[in-house]
């Protein structure tokens, strides 16, 4: 079990510094026909889940977001819409609601153009996010003030722990768990030795947080933690109130 934890920690050391970005242990070179800098998880059969990922992920629309739509040549269609809990929006002059939850702003614009294809001739549409979910991180376990915090600017793991009140007297700072969004159903788990960061100034392990990251500081040594976990299992580590 200890060997598995050491292997996981070494995996994190190789990384450099999260909408809802993840690097695999090895990053293949970008091919000429690739439109995004992306990596694939290792091949199936080793317990990982092959998927495509990109760095610097764009914000994706959530329910409750408020968007301002502007039509350059037909301002009578200008409107402000709120994304409903089911992810749909009601559009002026369009009979059917349009689902935009999970889309980036450029993707929303393309969806709107398709929705208005029978109403307007080649519309020029701009979209501005007026209100949306602010970037955040969650800190739990053996920290002074567990909870959900705004992620403002560049914030590393040790800085996030400090924001959350620092380590408690019984924390295992050499085995801090970082849970990072991997897919709609999975989170990736990284083991961070923040004790080494604080003592030896090994800043390569002090990863930069991404929106939605969750840090858990255990009280005692954890024998085993899988690299990927179902998102539903996060309740084991964090209070449901902050998830």
**Quaternary:** single chain
Low-confidence stretches: 1-53
The CATH superfamily of the largest domain is identified as: Outer membrane lipoprotein wza domain like
Shape: elongated
- List the secondary-structure elements in sequence, H or E: HEEEEEEHEEEHEEHEE
State the end-to-end distance.
29 Å
How much helix is in the residues? 10-25%
- Looking at CATH, which topology of the largest domain would you report? Outer membrane lipoprotein wza fold like
The percent range for strand residues is 15-25%
The counted number of beta strands is: 13
The overall average pLDDT, rounded, is 78
CATH class category of the largest domain? Alpha Beta
Count of domains: 2
CATH A-level architecture of the largest domain: Roll
Count up the helices.
4
Can you summarize the main beta sheet? 6 strands, mixed
Report strand order across the widest sheet: 9-8-12-10-11-13
Radius of gyration (CA) equals: 21 Å
Structural class: alpha+beta
Features:
243 residues, alpha+beta, Outer membrane lipoprotein wza fold like, wza like fold, six-stranded mixed sheet, 23% strand
Overview of this protein structure:
This protein has four helices and 13 strands. It has 243 residues and is of the alpha+beta class. It folds into two domains: 2-27 and 35-56 and 134-242, Outer membrane lipoprotein wza fold like (Roll), CATH 3.10.560; 66-131, wza like fold (2-Layer Sandwich), CATH 3.30.1950. The strands form four sheets. Strands 9-8-12-10-11-13 form a six-stranded mixed beta sheet, with helices on one face. It has a three-stranded antiparallel beta sheet with strand order 4-3-7, with helices on one face. It has a two-stranded antiparallel sheet with strand order 1-2. The longest helix has 12 residues, at 2-13. It is elongated. Mean pLDDT is 78; it is low at 1-53.
């Amino acid at each position: 079990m200890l060997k598995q934890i050491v292997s996981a920690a070494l995996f994190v050391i190789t990384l450099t510094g999260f909408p809802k970005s993840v690097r695999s242990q090895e990053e293949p070179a970008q091919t000429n026909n690739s439109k995004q800098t992306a990596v694939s998880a290792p091949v199936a059969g080793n317990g990982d889940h092959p998927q495509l990922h990109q760095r610097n992920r764009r914000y994706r629309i959530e329910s409750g977001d408020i968007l301002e739509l502007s039509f350059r040549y037909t301002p009578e269609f200008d409107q402000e819409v709120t994304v409903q809990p089911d992810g749909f929006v009601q559009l002026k002059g369009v009979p059917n609601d349009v689902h935009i939850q999970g889309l980036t702003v450029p993707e929303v614009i393309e969806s709107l153009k398709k929705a208005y294809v029978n109403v307007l001739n080649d519309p020029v549409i701009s979209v501005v996010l007026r209100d949306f979910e602010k970037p955040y991180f969650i800190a739990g376990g053996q920290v002074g003030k567990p909870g959900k915090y705004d992620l403002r600017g560049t914030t590393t793991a040790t800085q996030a722990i400090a924001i959350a009140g620092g380590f408690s007297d019984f924390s295992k700072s050499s085995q801090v768990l970082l849970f990072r969004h991997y897919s709609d159903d999975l989170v990736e788990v990284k083991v961070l030795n923040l004790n080494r960061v604080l003592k030896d100034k090994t800043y390569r392990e002090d990863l930069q947080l991404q929106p939605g990251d969750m840090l858990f500081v255990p009280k005692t040594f954890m024998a085993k933690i899988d690299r990927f976990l179902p998102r539903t299992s996060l309740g084991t580590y964090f209070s449901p109130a902050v998830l």
